[in-house]
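To whoever is on call:

I kicked off a structure prediction for a single chain this morning and the downstream step that reads the tokens threw a length-mismatch warning. I double-checked the sequence; it's 420 residues and nothing unusual in it as far as I can see. Pasting both halves so you can look.
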Amino acid sequence: MTTDETQPTDQPEYPLLAAPADGVPPVIDTERALTDAARALADGHGPVALDAERASGFRYGNRAYLVQIHRDGSGTHLIDPIACPDLGPIQDVIGDVEWVLHAATQDLPCLAEVGLHPSKLFDTELGSRLAGLPRVGLASVVEHYVGVTLAKEHSAVDWSERPLPQPWLSYAALDVEVLVEVRDRLAADLESQGKADWAAQEFHALTSFTGPPQRKDPWRRTSGMHKIRNRRAIARVRELWQARDVIAQHRDTSPGRVLPDALLVEIANGAPTSAADLMALPGASNRRGRPHPGLPRYQRDWLDAVRRVGAMNERDLPPATLRSDAPPPQRVWADRDPVAAARLTQVREDLAAFGEEHHVPVENILTPDYLRRVLWEPSNPLDAQTISRELSELGAREWQVDIVTPMIEKAVAEHPLTGE
């Protein structure tokens, strides 16, 4: 779990929660220990706090390298999912219990990989957004509701390291130790604000979350693509990205450690044809004159990628941009459809006012893309029933539909199209 916020100097200092109340438990790395943990969790009571530590930036993919579970009456359990890749015994015990996670969408995909799937869930990060907290990182939320500070210094370490150092394990155990207490106080806060049902709908939706949608042509998200000059250079980015991905997957390392995006883009633009050309690129070496290790080590892969593109026919080169079914950027609406632009502006203003009044971020009231899709080239007539149906089909929750539908209906009435 990453706690990436810095406490402002004008905030009160909270006592540091330096060590787990019952000490740091041993890491569970055998099937027998896993069975014992499942038995202990079955003897516990109340919700179950969970967290997972990944090795983003160090390893390929986002698998879990440590799973932390805490339940009152059971204590904290630290599980090595590399040694125990099937946590089915744990799922059998906690599958019907409410799970408490912070920023659940970060951890649910990697928990699913080891056999953990929630049926009931409470997300303290999302709940804190709905409750109007100004800062929603785990450390800030714990400070707000429990009055203690969590250590942050191990949030970005390489959790694939074995054995895991004791200070890291202490940090990991503390991430779940007070999470249920946070949940209880946050739930009371949401109830007092009249937002408990909003939160319940959001949490229920998260139980079916499997991860972000797969992007078409993920290589197009290479940092620095705006520097690419033409379609053939775009093709080189694609070939280089795919070559790098194969190497990274084989080595089980982050692609950026094989070759940074900045160098990949330089190769794509420079189109070197020899090792000498490759090493002569402006960004090939650091200030001390040392090349990035991945450049000479895999130079054959980079040069082969460039050569493949050089042999391609023009018709085989990727398009400069992908066609999208998304509405155009808001900045062009006024020129292309003034009525739709006026509607969008009005609804956004109403959403901002509602958010300010209820202390909820606008993006949590409704995903901005949903609003743009309903208002750009709208159905005719765009009545309340149609608005509600389209928002629901896009994925808006019932509470969001109830709030936003009247806003859109009012904007349609005030900015009608001819024939409406």
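Update from on-call: the warning came from a stale cache, not from the record. Cleared it. Sanity check on the structure: Confidence is low (pLDDT under 50) at residues 2-9.
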